[in-house]
């Protein structure tokens, strides 16, 4: 399966992904700049913030309350489609998932 990352300049990158992994793990392993994932996926940093493409928002499980709170309290430039990529566990149905790069804390 694949996920698509859309960089801030509009460049699209197709990344090989693995079912059962989180989107953050794929982005981090590809060395995507801006995804520091400081807490390693423990929902404690918000440095894995991405925007889910509007076409995909309703096709993936909604964020849990803890994720919503972390986004609101710690992410920058929060939008309706903001997600923490460490909380998006990839399934077969998410093949082709499109994620847009967000601005994350340095
Ligand atoms: S990696 Fe820290 S909240 Fe996602």
Distance between the termini: 30 Å
Q: Going by CATH, what is the homologous superfamily?
A: Beta-grasp domain
Provide the number of structural domains. Answer: 1
Number of strands: 5
CATH class: Alpha Beta
| Average pLDDT level | 96
How many helices does DSSP assign?
2
Q: What pattern of helices and strands is seen along the backbone?
A: EEHEHEE
Which hetero ligands occur in this complex? FE2/S2 (inorganic) cluster
Report what the structure shows.
With about 110 residues, the protein is α+β, with helices and mostly antiparallel strands. The protein has a single domain (about 1-100), classed as Beta-grasp domain (Ubiquitin-like (UB roll)). It is about 15% helix and about 20% strand. It is built from two helices and five strands. The protein has a five-stranded mixed sheet with strand order 2-1-5-3-4. A hairpin with a 5-residue loop joins strand 1 (about 1-5) and strand 2 (about 10-15). It is globular and about 30 Å long. FE2/S2 (inorganic) cluster binds near residues 24 and 43.
How would the blueprint of this fold be written?
Elements (H helix, E strand, L loop, with lengths): L1 E5 L5 E5 L6 H7 L19 E4 L12 H10 L7 E3 L12 E5 L5
Parallel strand pairs: 1-5
Antiparallel strand pairs: 1-2, 3-4, 3-5
What labels describe this entry?
alpha+beta, 2 helices
Give a quick rundown of the structure.
Helix content is 16%, strand content 21%.
